[in-house]
């Protein structure tokens, strides 16, 4: 049994055939050197994981058949990560780590001091898929389109608490204790939040300002630290 795991967009079930794209065929047969008769694990993000057998292998495509379900779908906690995109490699890192660490949705937001005004959503989504493939996840968080933070906050769903990471007096343990339910984490850009964003956040009943310690962390470090703290207190770790 190969250790290869592959995300496919088609819904899966026992006996189901799955056609491979050119890229998937290249990865399985060209890079991983698998061939007809060998098997791998596949998942679609909603039906769990299946052992699948390769029945056709070509340069431009191939065919798999689902043999048996090997794992149930395991949903992450209802946690969104909102972050202001930074440099490309560091933004990729944030998306990859958020998917590995169990964020259910990843939302890039444009703040007053955001360094990058554009993102390639499809590329970031591909990073989330790769992270799920390598970490054994059966769910892939959706990467949302880039949206303006002030508008996202103006339409904020009342039932979702917001862990707003900023220099604050309140430590995470105190701020998060005993508050289960839907949550989101917000990480600012390298330049921090503007005064007007801070005011908007402090005025929101759902928002709680949380400190990640006495040192100023880079935005990518802060994203990992905040996910770790939240998962440790309220999540599925
Ligand atoms: N010069 C910026 C400032 O003074 O706010 C630094 C921003 S920091 C590089 C990027 C983001 O990481 C911040 O907006 C915040 O969301 C988060 N962050 C970094 N260190 C933090 C800390 N010690 N406590 C809470 N959040 C922190």
Sum up the structure in keywords.
237 residues, 7-stranded parallel β-sheet, 7 helices, binds S-adenosylmethionine
Question: Would you give an account of this structure?
Answer:
- Strands 6, 7, 8, 9, 10, 11 and 12 form a seven-stranded parallel β-sheet that branches. The chain has a five-stranded mixed β-sheet with strand order 1-3-4-5-2.
- It is an alpha/beta fold.
- The mean pLDDT is 94.
- The protein has helices at residues 22-31, 88-101, 121-135, 149-154, 172-176, 195-202, 219-234, and strands spanning 5-7, 17-20, 39-43, 49-57, 62-71, 79-83, 105-110, 142-143, 147-148, 161-165, 183-187, 207-210.
- α2 (88-101) packs across α3 and α2 (88-101) runs parallel beside α7.
- The chain is 31% helix and 25% strand.
- The protein is built from seven helices and twelve strands.
- The longest helix has 16 residues, at 219-234.
- The chain binds S-adenosylmethionine (SAM).
- S-adenosylmethionine binds next to α7.
Strand-helix topology:
Blueprint: E1 5-7, E2 17-20, H1 22-31, E3 39-43, E4 49-57, E5 62-71, E6 79-83, H2 88-101, E7 105-110, H3 121-135, E8 142-143, E9 147-148, H4 149-154, E10 161-165, H5 172-176, E11 183-187, H6 195-202, E12 207-210, H7 219-234
Parallel strand pairs: 1-3, 6-7, 6-11, 7-8, 7-9, 10-11, 10-12
Antiparallel strand pairs: 2-5, 3-4, 4-5
Bound molecules: S-adenosylmethionine (SAM).
S-adenosylmethionine is lined by residues 165-167, 187-188, 190-193, 211-213, 215-219, 222.
Structure described in brief:
The protein is of the alpha/beta class and 237 residues long. The chain has helices at residues 22-31, 88-101, 121-135, 149-154, 172-176, 195-202, 219-234; strands at residues 5-7, 17-20, 39-43, 49-57, 62-71, 79-83, 105-110, 142-143, 147-148, 161-165, 183-187, 207-210. The chain is built from seven helices and twelve strands.
């Amino acid at each position: 049994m190969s250790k290869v795991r592959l995300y496919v967009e088609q819904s899966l079930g026992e006996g189901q055939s799955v056609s491979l794209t050119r890229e998937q065929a290249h990865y399985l047969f060209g890079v991983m050197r698998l061939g007809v008769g060998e098997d791998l694990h596949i998942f679609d993000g909603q039906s769990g994981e299946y052992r699948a057998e390769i029945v056709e292998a070509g340069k431009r495509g191939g065919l798999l058949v689902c043999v048996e379900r090997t794992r149930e779908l395991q949903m992450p906690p209802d946690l969104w990560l909102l972050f202001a995109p930074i440099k490309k490699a560091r933004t990729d890192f944030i998306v990859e780590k958020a998917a590995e660490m169990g964020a259910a949705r990843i939302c890039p937001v444009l703040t007053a001091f955001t360094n990058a005004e554009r993102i390639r959503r499809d590329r970031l989504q591909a990073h989330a898929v790769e992270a799920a493939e390598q970490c054994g996840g059966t769910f892939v968080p959706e990467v949302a389109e880039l949206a303006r933070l002030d508008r996202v906050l103006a339409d904020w769903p009342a039932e979702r608490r917001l862990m707003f990471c900023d220099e604050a007096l309140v430590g995470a343990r105190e701020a998060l204790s005993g508050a289960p339910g839907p949550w989101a984490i917000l990480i600012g850009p390298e330049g921090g939040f503007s005064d007007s964003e801070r005011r908007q956040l402090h005025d929101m009943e759902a928002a709680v300002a949380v400190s990640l310690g006495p040192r100023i962390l880079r935005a990518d470090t802060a994203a990992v630290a905040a996910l770790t703290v939240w998962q440790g207190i309220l999540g599925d770790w």
